[in-house]
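Researcher: Next entry in the queue.
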Amino acid sequence: MADEPSTARAGSTTASPAPAFRMARTPPHLALAGAATIAGLALGAALAGVAVLRRGRPLHPRGVVVPARLSVRQGPGWLGTLGRGDTHEVLARFSRAVGLPQGWPDIQGLALRWPGRSGPNDLLLASTGTGPWGRYLLTVRRRPLGGALGSLMPFATAAGPVVLSAQPTGEPRHLSLRWATPRGPWHTFGDLVWDEAGTADAPVRFDPVRHCPDGLATYPWADRARRYAYRWARAAGPV
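Model: Structure for this entry, 239 residues:
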């Protein structure tokens, strides 16, 4: 009978141990995208239901629209349109997320729209903190300008993720616009000013995913987390 091939090396008295079995791991970015999709579907369904009940916007149902000027300072090129020195005529909408009566604590919102290269540029901000962790937490306030308004989710740039914020300057009808790395210090890139207090709303819907400011991008997980919410809420509760 022919000899069996040996797995032991010459001069060795013990065979090499069998390699340990390892389960394949899901890449982190795929796991995050999957979780974001599930969260986005749940959020979209919930907001669509609220839109049907309200027969309109599920969040920020009432607001005030004012014309404003966005003056951008010359800054890093990777900030796109927010790093190129220019002045933009902006449509600004101040609103309250839940829609509670004026003077009640609520999540304050600020939506900005200005003309871009191939369509509108939209930037949506909500009342947040400014600290390394507080910039990712929503806060309730009685007044729109009672504190900072942040983007919550980061934007993708050639230099890495950045978050945006509009912060009161102490002057009436004037906000300082700033950017920061996820946990870094804030840097001013522009100013938002408006002349009118504003009393009326307007039938306009903003979409920060489809109309991301020129030169910036949304991360796939952030897109998945918000895509269905905007799409289904718009379909269920048109303006």
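Model: The mean pLDDT is 78.
Researcher: Noted, moving on.
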